[in-house]
């Protein structure tokens, strides 16, 4: 990526297949370093599908989906998989390897994609865990952890390793209002070092918050992606 280049750039990206089978307008979205896009995404399945599109996991019929200046469709599979190591993501559901404990799940992407020292990674992950309201890295398996703590652990995994793109699928619900402050702190720190953030939300309180530090506001629905403007 050249200096000042976009982190994420969807240019008239028309998928081979839409999530509901209905044709939609092509998707166009550009996120530069330090920008935060808040997307009103009321449908969970469509939201996750769009996150997949941004991560190069949805084949396109036309247009481009680029990350760090590189077209996902033009990259060899192994190179694209490695480049996804620069993306942190909180999944709306799932995303956990069931036979591993949560601590191993959190560390695994960094151990796979980087050569960072495991001790340093573990210390950094434990520090992030405490920042997100956990006493430390959870040693339970995902199935044994409460839903709230699993979301907190997912945030740790997403921000570990200083990703250049962070994709958040409605991470803060009404039941997790205490997560919003540390999450916004983590987002601010990521933006401060030049990362871009894509925050997909179904939380009306977040979407209507005039103080939310969004660079762009969008609406994702059955018609596609459109600017949402400022909240009423």
Describe the structure.
The protein has 232 residues and is α/β, with parallel strands linked by helices. It has a domain at 8-95 and 164-227: P-loop containing nucleotide triphosphate hydrolases (Rossmann fold), CATH 3.40.50.300. The protein contains seven helices and ten strands. It has helices at residues 44-54, 77-83, 102-113, 118-131, 147-159, 180-192, 204-208, and strands at 8-15, 27-31, 36-40, 60-67, 70-71, 87-90, 165-169, 196-201, 216-221, 224-227. The strands form two sheets. It has a six-stranded mixed β-sheet with strand order 6-7-8-3-9-10, with helices on both faces. The protein has a four-stranded antiparallel β-sheet with strand order 2-1-4-5, with no helix packed on it. Strand 7 (165-169), helix 6 (180-192) and strand 8 (196-201) form a beta-alpha-beta unit. The longest helix has 14 residues, at 118-131.
């Amino acid at each position: 990526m050249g200096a000042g280049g976009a982190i994420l750039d969807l240019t008239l990206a028309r998928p081979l297949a839409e999530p509901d089978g209905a044709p939609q307008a092509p998707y166009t979205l550009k996120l530069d370093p330090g920008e935060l896009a808040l997307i009103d995404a009321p449908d969970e399945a469509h939201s996750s599908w769009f996150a997949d599109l941004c991560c190069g996991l949805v084949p396109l019929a036309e247009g481009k989906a680029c990350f760090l200046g590189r077209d996902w469709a033009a990259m060899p599979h192994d190179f694209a998989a490695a480049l996804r190591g620069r993306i942190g993501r909180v999944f709306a559901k799932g995303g956990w390897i069931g036979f591993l404990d949560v601590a191993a799940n959190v560390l695994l992407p960094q151990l796979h994609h980087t050569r960072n020292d495991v001790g340093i990674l573990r210390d950094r992950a434990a520090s992030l865990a405490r920042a997100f309201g956990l006493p430390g890295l959870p040693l339970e398996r995902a199935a044994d952890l409460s839903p709230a703590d699993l979301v907190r652990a997912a945030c740790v995994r997403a921000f570990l390793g200083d990703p250049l793109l962070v994709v958040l699928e409605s991470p803060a619900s009404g039941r997790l209002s205490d997560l919003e402050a540390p999450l916004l702190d983590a987002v601010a720190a990521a933006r401060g070092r030049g990362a871009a953030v894509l925050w997909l939300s179904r939380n009306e309180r977040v979407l209507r918050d005039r103080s939310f530090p969004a660079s762009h506001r969008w609406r994702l629905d059955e018609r596609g992606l459109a600017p949402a403007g400022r909240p009423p």
